[in-house]
């Protein structure tokens, strides 16, 4: 008798989760090493050149800088895992309380960009592939190439010039939010950052969808379905799309993972109170606990996004899904 | 009746032609023929002859880069080529259907079999699944809901092809085009699929165009045969007439290239190559390769004209009758007295946890060709790879010239490795595309010694001479050679190390019959002139008769029969051997006549 094996899909998920945890652990070590264990003194970096020895000593004790490195790491990791990643060195607020609204704001930004941007790019890719070398395909492909060549802050500034300051004055050029209020209460300030991110993610997803779809449309089984007399809509949406989507899912995930970093620039351009802008401020202020926590959160987002993408890609491919 | 009179024709193609987009270069020259209800017309030709293009043109369809450049396709009075593109899919589906060459790629990997079957109907059948199950039963698949829920990758190649056939027959269209639907299936599966096709066409009076490169398959299936060469139908007539009394020189040459399962013939290749569409001569495209060609043949292409009732030929000098088959070129070489070139004793082998060979023993005498035949999965290729040192997980002994061989080729002596050479099935993928042919051949020598550049050049040139390739071939890239030339280059690469034993793994299965004949003759000559022993792995039993002296039949990882070739083919001892022989399509099959139902 063969031993009873776990369902292959469950095994796959468990393995990916284990690898994800390992990745996060390595990230935490790197972040910690980069911010705390490097030469130089964190307390001096925070307090500046003119700090008194007494103040330095007290801060060092507070930050556990007098303990061995691994103990410091253990204390820090324990804090992060138990949801108490310490206090800000700048204003003494709890890190979590300071970062949580920013995470929420960034999440709103990314979700909206994804909700509008991904379907738009997918749809454009599908249409371009079905009318390959037509006018739509040619023009959108050219625009996508141009967008891919521009850094995201240039796209953002261009939109500000176009829609907020110089050409037409429809929208606020910066996305200032009074502390304690939700960004969702002011949809107008969301428009420009969301639009910028939509344009930033468009080219990669569009090009991948177009390429993948064009390849599938050339395949034997699409020719076969065509000869069977199926309508164009069923052909594209039922026969081609499910087979074309798997590689695109990976690219969407990679794009968003990249955005988790790219959002820093866009938020900075619009002064949007998200995690990216928070990270930039923390770096300027040498607010080490905030930097560490922000980076770990972004890494966690990156890792979970990749796991979800792999899982979706498997679910979209019957051959992988039913492999035993 | 053979259905040439337009009166009862269900399909009529009139001056149908296909050209390359943006040019006047024609891939299919204006072609006319008709199909009677229930009639199967075999369309044969070698690669590049335009047979698939013509088949698709009947559906008013073409591959990217081509265009339908003229003519009419009338089915039930409707001209498919005049239907506006937006209405074509909906109106074509009830008139003509298509069975693809490779069901592995023609079924959608992302959709269940049931879904793909159901959408073959313009309106969903009233009794839903029962109707689909009946379709499965029609093509002799198990009519179970589990099969409807399966995805294509969960089916075998033969089952996939049956599903594709079920899809084509679903709405009982008057016409079906089948594009080499049994290529890639083993003979037993092929025989079953062909029988299903024959029965379905007869039962539902469906006319079929059966596109194939395999004359033996067409001989067993078709009522009439059309032979295509360089975009033209050069001969068209009843199957028995065309195959046994061919009138066109090309048809005759093609038939002489086909090995015959029932008697030993010296297969003859056709010198030269078919011209590409852009380089077709002004006159008869076959004239440059034709021994009978006159000046008039080169002036303008002869029209298809009747030489007898229903028998049309496009030739100024049609011949009647088939020349007597040439006597065998090589008499069986005795060599049993000498020490065997290769001796395999009690080999058992595994792929992972699966045992794939169970104690196989045989020997190969010097200067002898031993054929290794059997169904796919019987262990033929594994045995060949073990001898070549490419598969390592085995027990037993292999002696080459009396000396034992190590498991891995890397552990064998340089001389031993030189003495065993392996030729792969597919000449399209066995050469590095970025390396010139000469460099690839020289690599085989460099692995063992470091000769001077001039010495190496001389030896490469000699190896090319042996396989009758021009020496210039050394400076060509693989894509610049035809399939047959590439396979000859592969043989040159094997010969350059001075081997004693060549292992040939299905080396002609990717080639046209005329090219296969050239390769087979080449191997027979090398065997005699250079004292080579051959281990010839194949599923083509007819070919065995033409090349081998001794046959090993494999079944389920065992050698079940090991006898001289005539004994195995004429008086098989094992039931599995008898079944293989019975399933092999026979070239000399009794002519099929329309109206005699066999289903």
Task: Output the keywords.
heterodimer, A: 324 residues, mainly alpha, MetI-like fold, 2 domains, B: 599 residues, alpha/beta, Rossmann fold, 3 domains, six-stranded mixed beta sheet, 31% helix, 22% strand, globular, disordered N terminus, disordered C terminus, ATP binding (chain B), ABC transporter ATP-binding protein (chain B), nucleotide-binding (chain B)
Give the topology, please.
The complex is a heterodimer of chains A (324) and B (599).
Chain A: H1 8-37, H2 42-47, H3 53-62, H4 69-81, H5 95-130, H6 135-149, H7 152-165, H8 187-217, H9 220-227, H10 232-270, H11 275-285, H12 288-315, H13 318-321
Chain B: E1 11-20, E2 26-35, E3 40-44, H1 51-57, E4 66-75, E5 78-79, H2 88-92, E6 96-99, H3 103-106, H4 113-118, H5 129-138, H6 145-149, H7 157-169, E7 175-179, H8 187-204, E8 207-212, H9 215-221, E9 224-229, E10 232-238, H10 239-244, H11 249-257, H12 295-299, E11 305-308, E12 311-313, E13 342-351, E14 354-364, E15 369-373, H13 380-388, E16 394-400, E17 403-404, H14 414-419, E18 420-423, H15 437-446, H16 453-466, H17 483-495, E19 501-505, H18 513-530, E20 533-537, H19 541-547, E21 550-555, E22 558-564, H20 565-570, H21 575-583
Parallel strand pairs in B: 3-8, 3-9, 6-7, 7-8, 15-20, 15-21, 18-19, 19-20
Antiparallel strand pairs in B: 1-2, 1-4, 4-5, 9-10, 10-12, 11-12, 13-14, 13-16, 16-17, 21-22
């Amino acid at each position: 008798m063969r031993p009873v094996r776990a369902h292959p899909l469950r095994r796959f998920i468990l393995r990916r989760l284990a690898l994800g945890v390992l990745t996060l652990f390595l990230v935490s070590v790197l972040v910690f090493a980069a911010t705390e264990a490097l030469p130089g003194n964190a307390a001096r970096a925070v307090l500046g050149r003119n700090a008194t020895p007494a103040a330095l000593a007290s801060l060092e004790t507070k930050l556990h800088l007098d303990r061995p490195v691994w103990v410091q790491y253990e204390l820090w990791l324990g804090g992060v895992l138990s949801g108490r990643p310490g206090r800000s060195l700048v204003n003494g607020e709890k890190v979590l309380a300071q970062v949580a609204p920013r995470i929420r704001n960034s999440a709103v930004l990314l979700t909206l960009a994804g909700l509008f941007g991904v379907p738009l790019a997918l749809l454009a890719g599908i249409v371009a592939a079905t009318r390959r070398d037509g006018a739509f395909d040619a023009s959108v492909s050219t625009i996508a190439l141009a967008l891919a060549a521009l850094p995201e802050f240039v796209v953002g500034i261009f939109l500000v010039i176009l829609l907020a300051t110089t050409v037409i004055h429809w929208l606020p050029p910066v996305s200032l939010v009074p502390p304690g209020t939700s960004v969702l209460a002011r949809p107008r300030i969301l428009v420009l950052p969301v639009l910028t991110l939509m344009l930033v993610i468009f080219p990669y997803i569009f090009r991948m969808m177009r390429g993948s779809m064009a390849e599938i449309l050339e395949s034997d089984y699409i020719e076969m379905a065509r000869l069977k007399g199926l309508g164009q809509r069923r052909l594209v949406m039922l026969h081609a799309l499910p087979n074309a989507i798997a590689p695109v899912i990976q690219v969407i995930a990679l794009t968003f993972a990249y955005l988790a970093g790219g959002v820093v620039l866009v938020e900075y351009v619009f002064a949007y109170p998200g995690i990216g802008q928070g990270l930039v401020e923390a770096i300027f202020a040498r607010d080490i606990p905030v930097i560490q926590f922000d980076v770990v959160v972004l890494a966690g987002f990156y890792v979970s996004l990749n796991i979800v993408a792999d899982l979706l890609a498997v679910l979209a491919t019957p051959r992988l899904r039913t492999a035993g | 009746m053979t259905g040439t009179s337009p009166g009862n024709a269900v399909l009529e193609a009139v001056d149908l032609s296909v050209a390359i987009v943006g040019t006047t270069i024609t891939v299919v020259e204006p072609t006319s023929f008709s199909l009677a209800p229930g009639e199967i017309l075999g369309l044969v030709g070698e690669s590049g002859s335009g047979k698939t293009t013509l088949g698709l043109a009947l559906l008013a369809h073409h591959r990217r880069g081509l265009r339908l450049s003229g003519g009419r396709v009338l089915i039930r009075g409707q001209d498919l080529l005049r239907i506006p593109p937006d209405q074509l899919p909906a109106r074509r589906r009830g008139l003509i259907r298509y069975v693809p060459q490779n069901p592995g790629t023609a079924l959608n990997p992302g959709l269940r079999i049931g879904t793909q079957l159901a959408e073959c109907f313009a309106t969903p059948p009233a009794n839903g699944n029962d109707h689909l199950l009946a379709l499965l039963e029609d093509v002799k698949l198990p009519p179970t809901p589990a099969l409807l829920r399966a995805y294509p990758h969960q089916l075998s190649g033969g089952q996939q092809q049956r599903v594709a056939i079920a899809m084509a027959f679903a709405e009982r269209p008057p016409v079906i085009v089948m594009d080499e639907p049994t290529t890639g299936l083993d003979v037993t599966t092929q025989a079953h699929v062909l029988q299903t096709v024959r029965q379905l066409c007869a039962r539902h009076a469906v006319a079929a165009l059966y596109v194939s490169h395999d004359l033996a398959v067409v001989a067993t299936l078709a009522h009439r045969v059309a032979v295509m060469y360089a975009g033209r139908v050069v001969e068209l007539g009843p199957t028995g007439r065309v195959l046994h009394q061919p009138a066109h020189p090309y048809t005759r040459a093609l038939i002489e290239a086909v090995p015959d399962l029932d008697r030993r013939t010296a297969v003859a290749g056709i010198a030269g190559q078919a011209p590409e569409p852009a380089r077709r001569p002004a006159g008869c495209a076959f004239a440059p390769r034709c021994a009978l060609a006159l000046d008039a043949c080169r002036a303008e292409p002869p029209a298809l004209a009747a030489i007898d009732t229903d028998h049309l030929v496009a030739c100024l000098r049609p011949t009647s009758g088939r020349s007597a088959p040439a006597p065998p070129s090589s008499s069986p070489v005795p060599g049993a007295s000498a020490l065997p070139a290769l001796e395999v004793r009690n080999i058992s082998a595994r792929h992972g946890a699966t045992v794939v060979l169970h104690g196989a023993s045989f020997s190969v005498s010097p200067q002898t060709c031993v054929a290794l035949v059997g169904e796919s999965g019987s262990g033929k290729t594994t045995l060949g790879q073990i001898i070549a040192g490419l598969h390592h997980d085995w027990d037993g002994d292999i002696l080459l010239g009396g000396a034992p061989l190590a498991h891995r080729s890397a552990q064998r002596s340089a001389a031993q490795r030189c003495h065993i050479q392996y030729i792969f099935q597919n000449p399209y993928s066995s050469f590095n595309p970025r390396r010139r042919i000469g460099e690839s051949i020289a690599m085989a020598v460099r692995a063992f010694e470091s000769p001077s550049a001039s010495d190496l050049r001389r030896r490469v040139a000699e190896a090319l001479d042996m396989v009758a390739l021009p020496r210039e071939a050394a400076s060509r890239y693989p894509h610049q050679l035809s399939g047959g030339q590439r396979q000859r280059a592969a043989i040159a690469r094997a010969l350059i190390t001075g081997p004693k034993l060549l292992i040939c793994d299905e080396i002609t299965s990717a080639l046209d019959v005329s090219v296969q004949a050239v390769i087979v003759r080449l191997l027979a000559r090398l065997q005699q002139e250079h004292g080579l022993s051959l281990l010839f792995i194949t599923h083509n039993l007819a070919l065995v008769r033409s090349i081998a002296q001794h046959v090993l039949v494999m079944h389920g990882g065992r050698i079940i029969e090991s006898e001289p070739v005539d004994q195995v083919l004429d008086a098989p001892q094992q039931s599995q051997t008898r079944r293989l022989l019975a399933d092999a399509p026979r070239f000399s099959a009794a002519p099929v006549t329309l109206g005699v139902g066999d289903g």
